[in-house]
Design a protein that fits this description.
Length: about 450
Amino acid sequence: MKLKDIDLGDRVCIAGLGYVGLSLACGAALAGFHVFGVDPSTERVNSLKAGKNPLEHLVGVPSSQIKSLVDAGSLQVSQDTRNAPDARVKIVCVPTPMFIDRRPDLKMIKEASSWIMHSLKEGDVVINESTVAPGMTRNIIGRILEKSGLVSGRDFALVASPERIDPGNATLTVSEMPKVIGGIDLNSTQLARQFYSHFVKQLILVSSLEAAEATKMLENSYRALNLGLANEFARFCHACGVDVTEVISAASTKWSFHPHYPGIGVGGPCIPKDPYYLISAGEELGTPFNALLNAMLSNERMPYFVHGLLKDASSYIKKDISEVRVAIFGLSYKGGVKDYRDSPTIIFREILERDGIKNVRVYDPLFSSEEVTQLGMTPFDPKRDSCDIIIIATNHSQFENFEYESVTSLKAIIDGRNLLAGKKVNVPVFGVGRSSIPAP
């Protein structure tokens, strides 16, 4: 049975209003759809109702835009799923974390699917934007939805269209980001194409749910794999006395080389987690991703490697590591974004505490002292406080030309992002895969 075409009169309901769901909600509402979003966060929902963006570094969605959409009634939000109006297009945008053993945690996916199942009707279009391994949209979301008595592909459309939101990127907004779409059948794919074509410029149609899911797995695993090599190569360069930044720069002159850069660790909501979904799926099918697993472990070793650099720096300044006053520069998982999800700083700080280093403070120009304190950390004020060693953990642009000589008692810097390569600094700098830069 061919399902009715999508038009702007169809209501849209989105489960999850984080970076993905909020971007999508505003994009669809701006196109003319009436959108209802559900999110369990009281703070987030209240901010949106007041016309404010609760995710301040989601730069593609200004508060003025949200206020306009809320005031016009085009965007409604609630914590309570019972408030959701009847909607034809239902979209899953919830987090997909992992358990401590790195197995997929699908609790939120299942909860969202169960909620949708209870309101599912013939002709609906259900789209999964959450990141999952190939087969999960069909075998988990689809099976839960079919408990309604309706059949996917016959009575309702089922689609996988994995998110690609890049927090902090003002250029690649939801409308500019190429969108991969794969349905359980051709009709499902075409209905999703009709929906997204109202506000996304470039659509890439693939043959199946699994092809769309696998695309996201490959994208993020490609990055994780290359970062794993870069980090392993940096440790090698450290051991043999070669400057990794010089080598990467030289290798980048070859047309087929795509540079990836080593650092204190890999953070964020995607790269430290998504490849484990693929690794887990591979284990179930008897096709292990050994290279990818080793790359993930290589990335996870980097905070410990930088801890080793701290030991070297402490020895260099002739101070016992337990007595060193440390200031970590950067809380965000990447530069230019106020987002600490799975930040290497959090992991590194825990390593230092376990090692008995008590005097550890954190400074990030994007976070207030109160926000740092609320996260259980002690804030560092570079204008007032003193320290022995600074550890650069985030590649904020502010740190590239920071006046480090103004920090009282500073004796060394551990450059966990190699931001200071080639720069003149008044204290020794221990880089990742680089020799110490002698003080002038």
